[in-house]
Each structure stands twice: as structure tokens, then as C-alpha cells.
Amino acid sequence: MAQGSDSNDTSYKSPSPGGRAVSNPDDPKKVMRREKNRIAAQKSRLRQTQKADSLHLESENLEKENAALRKEVKQLTEEAKYLSSVLSSHEPLCTGLPPQTPDLLYPTHHSSYSTSPKFGVYPNF
């Protein structure tokens, strides 16, 4: 026999699922439906991949931002401690300021205060 002869074609074709017989595997409606389904599945997988990539990038950016903010908080805390210690060491030496009393910190309402809308409520000096 010559090669390429189709007379001894013994290729195996699996039975259809559920034992149903397929009337025509080349039915144009089924081919179109399968093609549409294949394209829809590809698009769905692509969207999932893009969403995962996007979430991964967002996560990395948020981690970097979080690390930068933690570093800034640490620096500001150290600066606040330093300034507090400078103030504490300077207060005993400072003779130019009168001791602060609650009245100076929270003045009572007097008629000598200006209520001009331009400046708010401030004492007239």
C-alpha cells in the first residue's frame, strides 16, 4: 500500500460526554459557539492576569509608601524628642519670659479684645 492512503484510518475518536451521540461535529452553529467560547475564555484569563498584575503593582507601591511614612514618623518622633529636650534645658535659663499661668494660656473674655472679622479675636496691643 502507498503511504498517505486513507483506507486504513484507525484513529480513535472518543465518545461524546454523557453518552449522547453527536449528529455532526462540523455543525456550523457548534463551531461558532465553541469559537466564541474560546475567545471569551481567553479574554477572561487575560483580564484575570491583568487584574492580578495591577493588584501586585498597587501592593508594592503601598508597601513602599508605608515604609516611607514609617520612616518619616520615626524622624519626626526623634525631632520632637530632641526639641523637647532643648526646650527643657533652655527653660531654666530663660529669664526674658514671665512664668506662664493659665490666664495667659487661655485668656478670659475682656472688652479690650478686638472682634474685627479681619483679624478674628485677638487682644489689642
What are the defining features of this structure?
single chain, 125 residues, mainly alpha, two-stranded antiparallel sheet, 2 helices, 54% helix, 3% strand
* Major sheet strand order: 1-2
> What level of helicity do the residues show?
40-55%
Low-confidence stretches: 113-117
What integer is the average pLDDT?
77
Shape: rod-shaped
As a whole number of angstroms, the C-alpha radius of gyration is 41 Å
What's the helix-strand series?
A: HHEE
Report the end-to-end length measured between terminal Cα atoms. 120 Å
Number of alpha- plus pi-helical segments: 2
Question: What do you see in this structure?
Answer:
The structure is a single chain. Strands 1-2 form a two-stranded antiparallel ribbon. The chain is mainly alpha-helical and 125 residues long. The chain is built from two helices and two strands. Residues 113-117 have low confidence and may be disordered. A hairpin with a 7-residue loop joins strand 1 and strand 2 (122-123).
Write the layout of secondary structure elements.
Layout: H1 28-90, H2 102-105, E1 113-114, E2 122-123
Antiparallel strand pairs: 1-2
